[in-house]
Amino acid sequence: MAFRIEQIRLHWLEMPLVHFFETSFGRTTHRRIILVEVTSGGVSGWGEATCGEHPFYNEEWTEGAWLILRDYVIPAALGRELASAAEASRIAAGLRGHRMARGALEAACWDLEARLKGEPLWKTIGGGARREIPCGVSIGIQNSVGELLEKIRTELAAGYQRIKIKIKPGWDLHVIEAVRREFPGILLMADANSAYTLADADRLRQLDQYRLMMIEQPLAHDDIIDHARLQERLETPICLDECIRTAHHAAQAIRLGACRIINIKLGRVGGFGEAKAVHDVCQQHGVPVWCGGMLESGVGRAHNIALASLPNFTLPGDVSASRRYWRRDIIQPPVEVTPRGTIGLRDEAGFGYALDMDFLASVRVRQETFRAS
Question: Catalytic residues, which ones?
Fold first, then answer.
C-alpha cells in the first residue's frame, strides 16, 4: 500500500528495569529507548531502536542511534513516496552498519502500512503461521547460583517453555551442572555473548554432557569461520546471533557448518525485510530459527510477536511478558504469557496494542519532530 512519509518524530524514553540484567559484557539496570514515529495521512506507525546504552553488544548505542537517525536516516526518509513498507529497507541503505537505527524506521513503516490497511502487523508481514507464540525466558548472570535457581523456579511456575541462562568464563560449567541437577528435564540453553575463544573448545565441549538445546554465540561477535571449527568439536548445537546481520551471512554460516540454529533479532538485521530474508534462507536449508530479545519496551516486544508468527520460528524465543522487565509498560494491555507459556496474536490494526501516551510522556526525556517540506 503506497504512502508518503510526511513526518517523523523521535522519542527518547528512560525506564528502570524491575531487576538488573547481566551478561558477559556488563549489567543493565535501566533502559534508554528510542521510539520512531512515522506519520502519513494523519496515521502513525511506531518502531523501536533496540540498541543498548553502550556499544558492547554491537557498535550501536542509544546516543549514537539518535544521531544516525537525526542526521542520516530521517533526511533520507522525509517526503519519500513508498509503494509499500517493503521499500523502507532501501532508505539510507548506503550507511555502513547501524542496522538497529535504520531498522527502527523500517519497522515503523511496516506498522504504519498495517494501520493504513486496518490489519494486524503479523498479517502485513506475511506471518500468522501460528496463533500462539511459544515463549522462553532469558535469565542474566546472578549474584549466586542459589539466586539463579530461584529465578528459574519462578519462570517455570509462570509457564515458560524454555530457560536460557547467560554464561561467561567463571560462570559456566558449575552453574549449568547445578541447574541440570535441580531441573533435569527442562529445555535449557546457554548464551555466551562472545565470551570465549576457540582456545576454550575443550571447556565448551564439556557442556555436551548437560543436554543443552544450544549454546548461543560462544565466540567473537563478528566470527563465522571459528564457529564452524568449534561446531565440528561439539555435539551441542551452536546458535549464531551477533554475527548474523544479513541473509547472506546466514547462508555463509549454514554452508560452512558454523551453526545448526539461528537467532533472529529484528533490530540486529535492520528490520522486517531482512529478518524475513534470513528466515527464508534458514527455512530452505532446514535450519530452525527463534526470536531473540533486546530488553525492548512494549513496542519492540509487539513487533517481535508479529515476527515470531512466521512459519520457521519453531523454537521458543525470548519474547516474554512485560512484567518481567517493567513495573509499567508503555502499551496497554501489557504483553502477558498464558499458563501454557505462549503469547497470543492480536487482531487489532498495527502491532496490536494501544500506546499509553500519558505514561509514555512521563518517561520521555527528549523529543524531536521532523516534517517533510
Answer: 166, 265
